[in-house]
Amino acid sequence: MGRPRGGDKQRKKEHFYQAAKKHGYRSRSAYKLRQIAKDHKLLSGVDRVVELCCCPGGWTQVLKEIDSSLQIVAVDLEVMIQLEGVKFIQGDILDEKIIERIESLTGGTVDLVLSDCSPNVTGQWDLDVVRQISLVEGTIEIAHRLLGNKGKVLSKVFQGPGFHELLQSVRKKFNSVKLIKPAASRKTSAEIYLLAVGPRGRSPHDES
Ligand SMILES: C[S@@+](CC[C@H](N)C(=O)[O-])C[C@H]1O[C@@H](n2cnc3c(N)ncnc32)[C@H](O)[C@@H]1O
């Protein structure tokens, strides 16, 4: 498994690409979140969300569409075109100062952490996977720090070198871990989504 095949022309003809254009979604990736949210009741009991690597904002649009009252803090290296009611931070999710800003904007505890991070690709698959997995490790650390006891984290992961070790480590940190391949994720793509619920090893004083 590796990168999606096919050129730009083929990509533009593709069903989810066309659907996203037609419905005004900023990314075809919006359909992945829509499906996961529906199939896994992702937003049930959720008021506060942190969305890592949010640009151009397709997932953020879906969140607002499903529940306009959600409190969302969204982060990306790039600038996101503003969406009403979303607090946006431009910066690196691996930077401690940015994590502290997320913490201060959320008030410390959230119900859901979302992460659709992809590094700038170098063309060397193994290196791209290592860099993507380090973004997932950063996501898991942020989630462990910010989530309440019943909190959830959904993160894209590239299945490549380091994937199984990552999975083992997430299983130690959360009560349940599932892998999800939504229909909008190309079969030829190595990406998969990891849904982990209930951070372990929290003090009894932590908020639920
Ligand atoms: C596939 S896009 C996310 C698409 C988004 N879910 C949507 O539906 O619009 C991946 C994003 O990861 C961001 N990214 C990569 N590394 C990052 C980092 N270290 N910190 C913050 N954002 C990062 C990129 O800037 C890019 O916007």
Write the topology of this structure:
Blueprint lengths: L7 H6 L1 H9 L6 H10 L8 E5 L5 H9 L4 E6 L9 E5 L5 H11 L3 E6 L9 H22 E12 L4 H11 E7 L10 E9 L9
Parallel strand pairs: 1-2, 1-4, 2-3, 4-5
Antiparallel strand pairs: 5-7, 6-7
Helix pairs in contact: 3-4, 6-7
The structure holds S-adenosylmethionine.
Query: Could you tell me the mean pLDDT?
Result: 92
| CATH homologous superfamily assignment | Vaccinia Virus protein VP39
β-sheet strand percentage: 15-25%
- Element string (H = helix, E = strand): HHHEHEEHEHEHEE
Report Rg: 16 Å
Number of domains: 1
CATH class division = Alpha Beta
Structural class: alpha/beta
**Shape annotation:** globular
Unreliable parts:
1-5
- The share of residues in helices is 25-40%
Tell me the strand order in the biggest sheet: 3-2-1-4-5-7-6
Query: What CATH architecture label applies?
Result: 3-Layer(aba) Sandwich
Described by strand count, sense and barrel closure, the largest sheet is: 7 strands, mixed
The tally of beta strands, per DSSP, is: 7
**CATH topology label:** Rossmann fold
Helix count from the secondary structure assignment:
7
